[in-house]
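Collaborator request, handled under Task 6.
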Amino acid sequence: MSPLLDVSDDVRAEIGEEEADRLLAGENAPGTYDCTSCRTPGDTQQERTSTVLFVGEETAVLAFAHATCIPSQVVPVSEEQLQGAVRSITGRPEEPASQPTTGAGAVPETETGHAVLGVTCGQILVGDHLYPALVVEPSAPIARPGSSGPGDDFLPLLTEHGFAPVGDLTELPPAVPGWSVLMAVGRLHAILQPSPDDGRPAAWWRAHEALPVTEGWRASATQHNTVLVYAAPVGSIGKQPREDLLREALEKAVAGGVLVAAAMPLAGT
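Structure tokens returned to the collaborator:
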């Protein structure tokens, strides 16, 4: 019996027609697996299964997920992130994480100078539904590329990319085309934006080490397939240890007119 595998055109293009045909025929497909999205067991003989290809600079790893969790797709990651994904796939235990979870990210090369972006994961109640959210705050003022002035252009730069000022936390922010939030093997890896050169995904923010998220955050992200990304200038939010305190800080930023946001699809797992 052939496995119930989904192999997207993008995955097929990466692994080649022969390898894709072997997978679909069951030659190289596993019988059972741990879903790379929800981390629960799956069976390729009993349920639709997506092939997910993690592609680094030099290597690639093929993983499997319930088709109900995520579609078959190619997930671009750095080589370092790919090795971390391999360790997770092969059974490296996850570190426990409380929520919100805060991590320091890499520097967006073209817009932040020497500032580092801090990212906090939390859930935001919008209407009657909890949405996964990321709150981004730089460690220093952000100058526009080519500018020598002391001003902070973090919010204007983001609004030029499609982020919108937040007037009410009870309303969903608009979607921003081409941007996405990258998860791999249940951990947060990056916020991606379209490259100005070819439109391919490029990291706007990237975690030094992939950040663990809570089961609730991951379940909410999978349910909505959307992550709400909020951003504020340095000193506006701070490191908040609880979600109620995080929301209070966001509401103060809204009242001060210093919060922008965008809704982004979840990329990867």
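The cover message to the collaborator said: "The longest strand covers residues 201-212. The longest helix spans residues 243-255. Please let us know whether this matches your experimental observations."
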